[in-house]
Each structure stands twice: as C-alpha cells, then as structure tokens.
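Notes from hallway chat w/ T.B., transcribed later so I don't forget. T.B. wanted the structure written out for a chain they're using in a teaching module, and asked if we could keep both sequence and structure tokens in one place. Agreed to drop them here.
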Amino acid sequence: MVLTSTLENKTAACRITWKQIISIYVKVGGSPEEVRTYRAHVSSKYLELTRKKLEYTRLPHDLTLEKGREWEMGTPKSIIEPLVDYWLETYDWRGQEQLFNDTLPQFRVSITPPGAENKKPLRIHFIHIKSRSSNAIPLLVLPSFPFTNLSFSPLFAALHSPADGGQAYDIVVPSIPGLGFSDPFNTSPNDPLLASTAYIFNHLMSILGYEQYLATGTGSAAASPANIDYHLPRLIGERYRSNCLGIHIIDPAVLSPSMTGAPLSYLKYSFAKFFHASIFGYTADDWAASSRSPTEPAGIKPPSPAELDATTVSEPL
C-alpha cells in the first residue's frame, strides 16, 4: 500500500461524502446483528485515570552503553520521557475524539462468537467507508495488534479514493475484540480467541453484504506480539476461502527452523544463536531483536500508558 502526500487533502474532501453515503448501506435497528451508527466517547473518569498513571510514572536512569548500543536493553528513558510529557501536557483526546466522529463513519454490531450457544454477543466497533468508484473491491483492513482501527485513519483515503486513479476499495476496519470500542471476549481462556476473531470478522463482512472480499494487515507480522498480525489474516484466508479470496501480509513472520522439519538448518540456527554469531546468514541484529524486552529494564508493569510507549516505539534505522 502506498501513501501519498495528498492524504490529508483527500480526507478533508471526503468528509461530507462519507456522511451522505452512510444511509446507502447501513441498516439501523435493534436486533443483535443489525448495524448501528456509533460515536466514539471515552468517559472522563478513564481520562483522569490515565492522567494520574502518567503523573505517577517513574523511569529509571538510562544505562551507560556504548554509542550505537543504546537500545539493546529496551527503549531508552530519553525516548520515553518526552512521550510521557507530551501525553500529559500537549495531547488533547477530546479534540481527537471529535475529529474521529466528524470524519469517520463508525458503527457497532453485535456478533455471537462461535461455539457454545450461551456465549454473549460481542459489540464490534468498525469503520465502513464505501468508495465512489464503480469497480471498488471490498477490503477488510485488520489493525495491527495492539492498536485500534482509529489508529490507521491516515491510510483510509488512499484506499477508498486513490489520488493516482488506481484500484479503489470499499473498506471495513474493525477493532479486535477487547481493543478500542469493541467488547472483550467473555469466554474461557482456553477458547481459540484468534480463530473466534477470524470468524467474527468474516461474519461482519457477510452482514455488510460482502460475500467475497480481500483482507490486509497494517503492520509488521514478524514484529507483532505472538505474531498475531500474521496468524489472524492467515486464519481468515485459510478458513473462509470461499469468502476471503486473498490476503496481504506485511513482513510475514519467518519461524525458526525445527529439528524435525529441517535438521541441518536447525543445527546452523542453534549454533549461531548460542554464540550470537554472524554466520550462516545470520547477523548480530537478529539476536538483538529476538532477545529485546522493552518493558523489563524500565521496571514498568501493566497496565501503564508509559508501557505502551515503551513497547510501540522502535529504534530508528
């Protein structure tokens, strides 16, 4: 996916259009699987709680490391501290909330997870923008974990109204259950939550009238916690082949070789990893990335907004 410098202009030009076309495709009602319009709103008590957590954050001193190795023990204090200050002193959530509500057509729909009949329906928050193009392709856009669908709004105009006249898409951008304004799962921890999420998102596309569609990730699958950004689109593509005709994965996760699957490659990998050696095609960066723990050196325990900073900021290339 290519972003252009005209994203903001295209977004501004489409604001009225989005509001005008909502009535064309949305069903509003009271039964569980009927779509309802939605406006983002976070209670003031949660904003105050976040502010207090930021105020109480205490970061340890940076370790003295050689130049070029500052990130080996996690995100440096010199990076996190200005972000915490920005959240406290500059960031305006109410203004951002209003911007989302004014520019993004948001909805919620209740969908029951697969399995036991007594499971409660989950209210799934999603953004749905239909392109004006007559040949637009339905596209399920999967937010990168642990972000919400609202985090990727700069992408949307390039997809539904490409400036270069390229392929346009009708985009559906849900939030993963438990993130943003989507309800969390209320099932057993032993339930296959990723498989249930794949079911819910495929069912959402069906509710909206898209019996066939494409799906894309929005972040590095290899860098995603537990490779969620890899496994979720893979599950959708594998389990719902008649509906999802293709998936796009950014930076697919490459798993380590196994003794049973590739014995020689496994021995080379194990030897290089044990000595942190740059041999057999591996580099020192591979071992640094595999052992990096952004939160432990800072002594931050969840839930903490500062931990979010520490785990989502990466070392500049």
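Follow-up for T.B.: The first strand starts at residue 36 and ends at 37. Might be a good example for the class.
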